[in-house]
Amino acid sequence: MKRSTSTWMFVIVGLCSGIAVAQHPGKSGSTTATPPSLVSTYSSLADTILGAREAEKNLVHAILATTYGHAQAALAAANTKLHAKQDARAEIESLAALVAQLGNEGDASVAAVRKRLVDAGHHHHHHADDQNKDEYDEGFVLVTKAAKKAFIDASKEIGKLAASPSAAALDAQWQKVAAQFQASCEGAKH
Amino acid sequence: MAEGGGAVPGILRGGEALTLLFAAVVLDLAGAAAGQAPPLSFVDVAADSGISRVLLAGRPGKDHLLDSAGAGAAWLDYDQDGDLDAYLVNGWRLDGATVVEKGRNALYRNLGSGRFEDATDRAGVGGEGEWGAGVAVADYDGDSWPDLFLSSFGKNVLYRNRGDGTFENVASRAGVESPGWNTGAAFLDSDSDGDLDLYVATYISHSLEQVLQARPDLDWKGMAKVAVGPFGLRGAADHYFESDGKGGFTDATERAGLSDKLLGYGFAVRAADLDVDGDQDLYVANDSEPNYLYRGRSDGTFEEVGLWTGAALDGDGAAQAGMGVTVGDANADGLPDIFVTNFQDDHCTLYLGEGGGFFRDASDETGVAAPTYPLLSWGTAFVDLDQDGDQDLVVANGHIYPQVDAHPDSGTSYRQRNLLLRNDGAGRFTDVTADAGPGFKPAKSNRGLATGDFDDDGDPDLLITALDDRPNLLRNDTAGGAWLSVLLDPAPIAGPAIGAKVTVRTGTRTQWRDLASSDSFLSSHDPRLHFGLGAATTADRLEIRWPDGNRQAYEGIPVNLRLVVPRRLPDRPRTGG
Asked: ipTM of this model?
C-alpha cells in the first residue's frame, strides 16, 4: 500500500511540474503543443503501466509454475507410497488440491489479490473485447475458462482416486494436467 | 416393536389431533390409489394468524446492498409447550443518510389454534437495536432450552433461553459479538467434545457511515443506476468460535483452518455431514465467488475442499452468486445433495452427491436450472410438501434493485413469485408453482424461508420474509400422504442433538434428515424432523445416529405420529476433543 502511494505521489508531482511548465512556454514558443516534459512523463508512465501488465503475466506464470512444481512433488510422493503399498490418500488429495489451484490460477490468497485488482477496475484482458470476455474469467491472466474447467475436472478425478488409488489411473489424469499446463503456459509467451 | 428392548418413542401431545389426522390420510390414500398426485395447495394465513411484523429494509431505492439483503426467520418451540413459535429478524429503515427506525425482531408465541401472540417484549428478544440478518437456533449451553443466535450488521446477539419464557443477551460475555456485516451462522460440534461451536459468515467490510452515505452509482445494463457491489467492495473474513463448554467462545478461526483468505462475500452457512464420514462439515454460499466446502476432521479443524470435490463452482467451472443453501437428498440415493440459490440470469445449482464427499452440478438434468434461471433466489428448503416420500424444493425469490420495475423490457421485476419444484421421486423436479394455490400467487421481494408445521396437522408449512413487507405464512393445505415427525430430545450429559441424523425406512424406501441449527437463507427450520411417507401405514425402521456416533433404532412405528425420541445415554465414551 505504501509503495502504491509513493508511486502516485511521484506521478502527481510530475503532473504539477508539467502544469507549471505549461504556464510558461519554453523556447519553442508554441502555446498549443503539449509540453514535451509532460509527454515524456506520460510516456514513462505508459512504460510502467504496460510493463506492469507484462510483469503481471510473468508473475502469474511463476505462480502457476510453482504450483505445478508442488503438484509434481505431490504426485511423486503419492506414487512412492503407492509403489510401497502404503496409504497415499493424503498425497493424492494434496495433488487434487494443487491441480484445482492451477485451475483457479492460484490459491485463495492469490484469488484475493486478483479480486482487489478486479474491484479496482483492472482486467488483464480487456473485457470490452467480447472474445476475451468469453475466454477468461474476470481477472484471470493465463488460465482460460476452458483450461480452468479442464483443471477442475481433473482435480476432482484425482481426488476420487484417493479412495481407490491406482498408479496407472493417477498417471492418466496427470497426463491431462500436464498437457493443459503446457497449453496454458503457451499463453504466457504471447 | 422396538429394537434393543426399548419402547416406541413417546408420542407428543395432542392425541385428539392425531385422530383427526388419521382421517385426513384416509382421504389422501384414496387419491393415491387413483394414481394421481394430489395438487399442492398453499394459503397465506399470516394476517389471520397475527404474524405481522414488517421487515424494515433500508431505503426505498435500496441505495446500498444492506438495504436489500433482508433477514431470516425461524421456527422454534421456545417455551416447550409442544407447538412451534415463530421468530422474525428485522432490519432498519433509512431515509437518505438518516436512520428513521431501528426495526425490532419479533417472537410470536403459538396459541395452538393457528393464532399467534406477540411475545417479543415479554421474552426480551427484540434484537438489541442491531440491524439484524440471520438466525440460528440451538441449545448452545446444553440446558435443554433452545437459544437464539442472531447475526447482525453490527454486533451479533446471543439470546440465552432462561427457560421461563424470557431470554438474556449474552453475546458480549460469550465472546461472539464480532461486529461487522455478519450473515449466515451455524452451530456444530466440530471437535467432538459434546458442545456446540459456531461458524459465522460475513459479507462486506463496510461501516454504518458508508452504508448511510451510499448512492446507487452502479450502471445496470445501461438502464438504471443501482446499488454498488459486491464487486468493488472489500469482502470480510468469516469467523469460527470454539465453545469452551461453559457458555463461552473463543475465536479459533485460524487454528481451525477456516481462515477466509479470499475474503469471500459470505451469505448462507450450512453444517452437515456432507461426506458421510460421521462428522460435521461446513458449506458456505458465497456471493459471486466460489462456495466453500470445509471438510471437518472431527478434531475441530477443517480443510477447504470445494474446488476439487465439485461443490464450489457450477458445471462450467464458473463461480455463481450464492445466496442460500439447503441440504437434503434429491434423488433418494442416501447421499447428501446441496442446493444453492443464486442471482438472476443464472440458475440455482443442485449439487448431487456422488459419494465420498464429491458432488456434481446436476441442475440441468434434474430440471431445476430452467425454472430458476429468470429469478433472483434466496431462501430455500428441501422439504416433502406433499408427503409422498421425496423431498421437493421451495425457493423464495425477489430482486435487489427496485429500479428494474421502471424498465419492463428488462424482463425482470423487483417483486417475484416464490417457486415450488415438485420431486417425481427419482430426483427430477417440475415447476408446479402455478398450481400450488393462492399462497404462491403474490409477488414480493422475498428473502428468508423457514419450514415448520405450525398448525400441527402433520404437513410442513412455510414462513417467508419479504423486504418492506409482512411475512407470508403459507399454510399447507395439500392432501398429502402419511407422515412422521421426529423430535430429538438429547440427554444433556451426552451432548447436543444438532448434527444428529435420523433415517426412516418404509418398504424399500429409505429417507434421512439431519438436524441443523440453520439452513435456507439466514433461517432455521422446524426442529422436528419431518418425513413424508406416502401410502405407507408403518415405518419399518427408524434409526437415530447421534453426533457422537451412538445409535438408537426402533421398528414398526405407526405413521402420522409426532415422536419424541429421548436420548439413551451413550454405551461408549465420547471420542475426540
From this structure: 0.89
